Amino acid sequence: MKNPYLLLFLSIFFGILLGKIKIKNFKLGSSGALFSGLIIGWYSTSLHSNNVEVINKLNGEFQQFFLFSLILFISSIGLIASKDLDKIIRKYGVRFLIMAFFITFTGFITTYIFSGFGNKYEFVGIYSGALTSSPGLATALETASNYEKEIISGYTFGYIPGVLAVILSMYIFPYIFKINIENEKKALMEEIHFEKDKEEKFDFLAYSLVIIIGILIGNYTFDLNYISFKLGITGGVLLSSLFLGRLGKVWIFDFRMNKKILKTFQEFGLLMFLSSVGLKSGYNTLNNLNAQTLNLIFYSFIIALIAIILGFIFGKYVLKINWIILSGSVCGGMTSTPGLGAAIDANNSEEVAIGYGATYPFALLGMVIFNKILIMIN
Asked: Which residues form the YidE/YbjL duplication domain (predicted)?
């Protein structure tokens, strides 16, 4: 149980089996890998709890799996969705920006209300964890460096409930709110007139360039007066894949790639991503459960759920956004990559990624702004 590759593929294997279990019309799908990863991560780390060297090595490997899988998953869905990006932007435009700030603001207000029931700086961490935002965590740590321990504790126990809230909502909302997914797809097709799929080759040269440019964008620091933030690997690769994919062929680079190959990359990247999240979080999450941490988990789940539900209601009934695009927009507002995977799986539609891609950058900015405000008023 010291081999990180064995642990990764055990998590993927059992995650797929778990995801196939169906209760009425509900199943976990690819998200099963998160739960199998949590259990296997806890068990494998427990076996070596007295060997710090082994644990550090495993955690380092799990982090590398996490980053590589993000690149695979995000780049593939961005390239798939890119062909219809401009049509969706023309149709919904500024509504994506409004969704991003509405969801992050709702999470901020809910967190502020709940912060009166515990350590205020733990709730600063919970805010970033519930909305699964690493840039938000970085901003909080930079702004309140004297409270690093409390902020990290809140984020650690807030992250998994935040992920679960988004994943479950993507599968359950259509049943609760009586959304006919097939009708939503047909309505979207009538509104947008998507391009037909063509049999394309796969250009590894162009694919490598997409990732290189995405990583460079993700590492660039945007300075806006008193606010600075990075898009990170997720935001950078997503923007480069959407933009370059829309350009098509440029010189020797062909960014229109074979959809079947991209979908394989997408599925494998998602399974690997969810497994690695579970593997690296399993020990701390399951081994440190007590009354205090259970409270943090509960508050995080409620904060995430309120932001998701209000975001959905606002987007569906006020902004009138089609569910296929809205589901991606909600995940983008929550900056949740696992949620995006669940939304694509639940709707069986890559167009979900367009809503995610258009909302995500604004949500990152919202997280940076509201994290600073949360610390200032605390």
From this structure: 8-173, 207-375
pLDDT band, residue 14 (cuts 50/70/90) = very high
Secondary structure (H, E, C), 267-297: HHHHHHHHHHHHHHHHHHHHHCCCHHHHHHH
Of 162, 80, 111, which Cα lies nearest the Cα of 337?
A: 162
178: left (phi over 0), alpha (psi -120 to 50) or beta: left
Beta bridge partners of 253: 250
Residue 284: burial class (beta carbons within 10 Å; 0-12, 13-18, 19+)? middle
| 250, β-bridge pairs | 253
| Widest distance between CA atoms in the chain | 60
Residue 121 in 3-state DSSP?
helix
- What is the pTM for the complete model shown? 0.75
Total count of residues recorded for the chain: 378
Domain layout of the chain by residue ranges = 82-272+288-377
Higher pLDDT, 370 or 152: 370
List the structure tokens of 74.
């995000």
